[in-house]
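FIELD: query
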Amino acid sequence: MNKKFFSDLFKRKAKLQGIISKLFLHQFIFLILYTFIPYALFIFSGCSSTPVSEVKPVPKRVLDESLTDNIAYSQSSDLTFNIPKGWFTAEDNDCKCIDLWLIRDDFSATLNLVTLTLENIPKDEDDILDSLLQHSKNEKKAKLKNSFRILGEDKYFTINEKEFASYQYEGNEKLPIQVVVFRYQDHFFELSALPASEVGKGKVISEELFKVQKAVLTSINE
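FIELD: result
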């Protein structure tokens, strides 16, 4: 009986030692993994991440010095303009045909934003501008008839990665008017710079007016 007792005791001891050995082995493996994996991830992320010095900040758009921080809002879209210094915005209460109306403080000039509608929209952006130019000219000619006269050639230009086209004409008052056509999202617009001609209005130099018109276009929101 003593031999059997000691034999069982040795077997249990051997079994216990085996369990302890496996336990230490598992703890050792866990310790290795716990230490190595975070270190490996740290090394990997350090090698693959972009250094701070290489991250280029998005440049902030600089507002033209002729503009204020005050905003004018389109009635038909999300488009906004910054109002020029010495100008104010008003609503077109007569025909509701002006989408956004800017007026110079001395009433010597206005900037009129009007929506345009194209029946057939070309796929190419350049063709869209050509269609908008022709559509705008046709409307002016139909309204002014023989008084409508084109001044110079059409111009194409880019502001803040947006495409524009413009033309100049004169009507009944024989004053140069500049029209800029463009696309904003799914909307089409023309922005006309018109000097006033009525008695009592101030006088504005056309080139200065057209410069303000271009400055306003630089402030179109994204």
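FIELD: remark
The first helix runs from residue 2 to 48.
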